[in-house]
Amino acid sequence: MRIATLGPAGTFSELAACEYGRQLQHYTLHFYPALARVLKALPDEADCAVVPIENIVEGVVSPVIDSFVKRPLEITAELTIPVRFSLVANHVAPEKIYAQFVAQGQCSECLSRYDVPIMNTASNSEALRLLQQSREPAAAVVPEHSLREHSFAHVESNITDYAHNETRFVVVRTKQQAEPSARRSGVAYKTSLLIIDDTDHPGLLVEHLQVFAAYRVNLTSLVSRPTGQKFGHYHFYIECEGHVADSAIAAALTLIKLRNKVMVLGSYPDSSAT
Ligand SMILES: O=C(O)C(=O)C[C@]1(C(=O)O)C=C[C@@H](O)C=C1
Predict the structure, then answer these.
(1) Domain 189-273 classified CATH 3.30.43.10?
(2) Which of 112, 127, 227, 239 has its CA 20 to 30 A from that of 68?
(3) Which residue's CA lies nearest to atom 3 of ligand 1?
(4) pTM to 2 decimal places
């Protein structure tokens, strides 16, 4: 199995991809420099992709949700891993700090103390690589596990704002690559879907929410993403408890589809229930 994930090696995405890979008989990892590019590797360069979808503090990882809007993809599994960061530097007084865009928000207290420009990077490994190449006093926010392999002039350990910091990853395939998700008894499922808004009108969201409430479908996540077309126009990314084949979800979606386009991104075992 060829697994595409965010690289270079050393990212949390690599840890998540290896955790998923351990459940398979054989796998190889293929690294890409940006999250949107990881998903573009499907289907020709990879059989599945492992990408972060939500951090417990920072919320959803926008480039991933936006890729789902552009192209029908299938989420087949989810996994959650703990995320711990350190600040490492080549000098005690760095003049800039490299930090991945999602990592920056998870370490805001520490970063604000330094009061120097933050240079956003596509991955945590890229932040480390740029620090190693820097000739000026600089620092980088890096995964705690990087400290095992590298040494630095200055280290501040465990700089994450919240002790219980974790990120949820999803395993993604194209609709053609994914086998239909069979519902196994005794397994708690979650379903991810997108409501594509092309008929903005007063009460649009509340109408959809009332349908879910009427069928007693429990939503676990609801995020609006701008369509990029016009202010005030949004797509809705929703996660709910249950399998798309459950009668309540199927009935709710039939009603919602009368008003808006719905993209079902997949039903997969709920990792928080195991
Ligand atoms: O750069 C990495 O190490 C990643 O795997 C990406 C990523 C993310 O984008 O959410 C994964 C986990 C952390 O939340 C921070 C960064």
Answers:
(1) no
(2) 127
(3) 11
(4) 0.92
